């Protein structure tokens, strides 16, 4: 992410500067880069959620920006780009005003964060910092520091005067006829893939939702990347009751904080954050949620990596370090070794010093697993994995088996287990496991466990501990996230179809 921050001091009181800047549609009156601007849908220029559409004076195209937050108590506002001719990806900006000591001058800070195509970082940072922010500061000073404007005289420019005069000449509508906001006060609108009823992928449809302002202990964030996980399929079909339709699916995403409610500590507007936790609701462009389970992202970890790694990476952490503490010399069997969690398990267990065996469904996936620490990939279409594990371990079996496949592999996994081995069942992609006779597992003094993600990552303390270890592993190269597929959020149904038919490799993300 590129971060741009510029500031200046204007020789005018805060009240005068704020009168000039407060109208989100007023930038055409003072910024030299703006030719003309209008607010869509008949909204007001200070209504949170309003969208301004404006053209550039140099003929460079048209932009659409949305007002995300506005405060009169601490003058300032936050907004984002919805559409632009330049590739400012995920652009969110904030302008703040503060009085300078004696109160007759104003400190203005204008900052933003955004992503760019590779190699365009410097060019676009200069465009924003110099062409927009510095040019804007110069225009504000020219307006307010000349002709007595700094003393609090009117700041209306020619365009404002023209609009006001026209409004005074026109018949005035009754107050009751004024346009009404389509969203509650302080709310913003966001597109989302909403599950209308339990069932197949096509039960998800694109809708516009109202996203409320953050309450105590909450933040509102704009998503930049959303993780796709098999638990989303379980929720979609109703196998897991984490969502009662209608509503958006998704437990994992990364994004930018737009605003924080009272009692939120350690997270500020503009921070890049990620999460992987209930309640579900990540399949949306923006959402409001509790702040305590969010993790602030280090600068070295980009949003796409975070969205692809949080749920899978934290799962791998507690599977390898808490459910069963893998150590050097262990033999580990990973089913679905070329999947999102499978690749991370292979990498991390190999780094610890374990011998990693993995099952995959194709030669292509075998090559991917091998490149990620799986010493012995087994293509199950042509090899029996139990016989192969016994061959590799010279009849001893695996010390721990991580099985997210379920019905098709569970009982055979027991056959591949070593005496006093540990069979960890953490998913059921092939279907529910049939009832088992626990007495049968006495033949190997086996341990069988079924960890629940929420029981390991369900508190702020656990999130901090597990995400800290995950981020360190990503920073040091112990873990590498393979993003095999990227889908537009609107294509979530196709993403689910690909996931269910095992036509994906590595992690998949949805991009709003």
Mean pLDDT: 86
Computed over alpha carbons, the radius of gyration is 27 Å
Strand count: 23
- Biggest sheet, strands in spatial order? 1-7-6-5-4-3-2
Main beta sheet, described?
Answer: 7 strands, antiparallel
Poorly predicted spans: 147-182
Which class do the helix and strand fractions yield? Answer: alpha+beta
Key words describing this protein structure:
512 residues, 12 helices, alpha+beta, single chain, seven-stranded mixed beta sheet, seven-stranded antiparallel beta sheet, elongated
What would you say about this model in short?
This protein is an alpha+beta fold and 512 residues long.
How would you explain this protein's 3D organization?
The chain is α+β, with helices and mostly antiparallel strands and 512 residues long. The chain contains twelve helices and 23 strands. The protein has helices at 14-21, 121-144, 158-169, 230-237, 303-323, 340-352, 363-371, 385-392, 410-415, 453-456, 460-475, 492-500, and strands at 2-10, 34-39, 51-56, 62-71, 76-83, 89-100, 105-115, 188-195, 204-211, 218-228, 247-248, 252-260, 272-276, 286-290, 295-296, 331-334, 355-360, 376-379, 398-403, 417-425, 447-449, 483-488, 507-511. The strands form four sheets. It has a seven-stranded antiparallel sheet with strand order 1-7-6-5-4-3-2. Strands 10, 12, 13, 14, 15, 22 and 23 form a seven-stranded mixed sheet that branches. Strands 18-17-16-19-20-21 form a six-stranded parallel sheet, sandwiched between helices. Helix 6 (340-352) links the parallel strand 16 and strand 17 (355-360). Helix 5 crosses helix 6 and helix 5 (303-323) crosses helix 11. It is elongated and about 85 Å long. It starts with a strand and ends with a strand. The model is unreliable at 147-182 (pLDDT under 50).
């Amino acid at each position: 992410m590129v971060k741009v921050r510029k500031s200046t001091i204007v020789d005018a009181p805060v009240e005068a500067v704020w009168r000039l800047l407060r109208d989100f549609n007023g930038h055409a009156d003072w910024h030299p880069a703006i030719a003309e601007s209008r607010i869509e849908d008949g909204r007001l220029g200070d209504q949170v959620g309003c969208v301004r559409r404006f053209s550039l004076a140099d003929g460079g195209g048209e932009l659409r920006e949305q007002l995300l937050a506005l405060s009169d108590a601490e003058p300032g506002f936050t907004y984002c780009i919805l559409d632009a001719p330049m590739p400012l990806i995920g652009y969110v900006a904030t302008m703040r005003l503060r009085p300078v000591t004696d109160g007759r001058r104003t400190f203005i800070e204008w900052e933003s964060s955004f992503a760019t195509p590779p190699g365009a970082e410097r060019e676009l940072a200069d465009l924003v910092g110099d062409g927009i922010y510095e040019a804007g500061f110069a225009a504000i000073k020219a307006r307010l520091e000349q002709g007595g404007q700094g003393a609090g005289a009117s700041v209306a420019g020619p365009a404002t005067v023209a609009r006001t005069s026209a409004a005074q000449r026109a018949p005035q509508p009754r107050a009751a006829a004024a346009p009404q906001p389509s969203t509650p006060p302080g709310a913003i609108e966001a597109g989302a893939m909403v599950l209308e009823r339990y069932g197949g992928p096509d039960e998800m449809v694109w809708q516009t939702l109202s996203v409320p302002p953050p309450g105590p202990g909450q933040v509102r964030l704009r998503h930049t990347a959303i993780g796709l996980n098999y638990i989303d399929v379980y929720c979609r079909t109703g196998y897991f009751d984490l969502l009662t339709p209608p509503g958006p699916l998704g437990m994992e995403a990364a994004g930018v904080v737009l605003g924080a409610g009272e009692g939120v500590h350690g997270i500020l507007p503009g921070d890049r954050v990620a999460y992987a936790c209930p309640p579900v609701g990540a399949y949306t462009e923006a959402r409001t949620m509790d702040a305590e389970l969010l993790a602030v992202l280090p600068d070295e970890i980009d949003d796409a990596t975070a969205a692809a790694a949080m749920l899978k990476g934290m799962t791998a952490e507690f599977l390898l370090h808490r459910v069963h503490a893998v150590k050097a010399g262990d033999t580990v069997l990973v089913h679905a070794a070329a999947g999102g969690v499978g690749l991370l398990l292979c990498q991390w267990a190999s780094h610890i010093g374990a011998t990693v065996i993995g099952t995959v469904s194709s030669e292509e996936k075998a090559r991917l697993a091998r490149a990620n620490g799986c010493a012995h990939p087994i293509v199950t279409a042509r090899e029996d994995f139990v016989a192969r594990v016994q061959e590799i371990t010279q009849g001893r079996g695996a010390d721990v088996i991580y099985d997210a496949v379920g019905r098709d592999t569970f009982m055979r996994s027991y056959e591949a287990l070593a005496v006093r081995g540990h069979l960890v069942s953490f998913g059921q992609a092939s279907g529910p496991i049939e009832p088992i006779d626990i007495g049968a597992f006495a033949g190997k003094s086996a341990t069988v466990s079924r960890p629940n993600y929420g029981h390991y990552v369900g508190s702020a303390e656990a999130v901090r501990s597990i995400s800290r270890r995950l981020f360190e592993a990503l920073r040091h190269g112990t873990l590498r996230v393979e993003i095999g597929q990227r889908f537009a959020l609107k294509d979530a149904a196709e993403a689910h179809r690909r996931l269910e038919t095992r036509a994906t490799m590595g992690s998949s993300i949805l991009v709003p």
